[in-house]
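Final report, Chapter 2: Outcomes

The project's central promise was a pipeline that accepts a single protein chain and returns its three-dimensional structure in a standardized token representation, suitable for archiving and comparison. That pipeline is now operational. To close this chapter, we reproduce one record exactly as it appears in the project archive, with the input sequence first and the structure output second.
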Amino acid sequence: MASSPKSDFSNDGGIEAIRHPTPAEDGATPNSSNPTPHDRLEAFAQRRPLLFAMAYRMLGSAADAEDIVQETFIRWQQTSEVEIESPRALLVTILTRLAINHLQSARVRREEYFGHWLPEPLVTAPYQNPSIALEVDESLSLAFLLLLERLTPVERATLLLREVFDYEYSEIASILDQSEANCRQILRRARQHIKDPRTRFDASREQRDELLRRFSEASLEGNLEGLVALLSRDAIFYSDGGGKAPALPKPIHGPDNIARGVLEGLRRLVPKNLVRRFVEINGHPGIVTFLDGRPFSVFTLDAADGLISNIYVVTNPEKLKRIPPLESQPS
């Protein structure tokens, strides 16, 4: 039987505890054996988009991802020259282990979170988000990020490294300080844990756009039957206010309950003078509402078989800080 995954990379020795990483495919190295501060800064800057992309998917929070990327830079600066064989491999190793440690320490806080926790939404269009410099795909969707919540930190890292960022098992083994055989077992368990027959990504962008438009119109018109007709039989409505903004404490299941809950929420909890803008949220069609020019909520959805399968609404103001203000949005 393979050994259980190691789950704590917080060694007091810091970066010295990281085993010499397998060189990644970029093959870049700092200037000879004595990289200058400029060399180190440039090597980090080139890989910063990758590091943020990995950290955000690991943590589901842009704020935490930025903190982890910054801590990775600090440790990268402190690394001795003899430890650097591949900048990319070493940076990814540092970041992955920091993210695993963060998830382990955040577990209690997540369990004590008021209401249902949702990932921090990212606006990915209509303007260029500098944090999302890599391809926007389904691994960035709120549905996928929620599935990752079922995994242990090590399972999450293994799945992302292999399935999203195309790392070889030998590289993953080095990053996680595991054997290749153990990494394969971890990945197998991770795949089993996120199996969900409800999670399908077969709707086109045009279908999602149309469903979002029709749902928005039916909501504003108070059209109960129109809302019900747009929802799949097993649809789920998730909302996250973090105890700081209007939201429902538990998910709502089923089209009738969702439609009534949405209309009741609009009547009782939502200000009448909101301004709405259609944007792209984590690669999917979405709506941002603004109150007095500041973001009030983010709304997005999943679709399958021509119907809405999941709805996500984030009103927690801590998770809306990175949404651009109303004046920067196209009208």
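Archive annotation: Strands lie at 123-125, 231-240, 252-253, 275-281, 284-291, 294-304, 307-314.
This record, like all others produced under the grant, will remain available to the consortium after the project formally closes.
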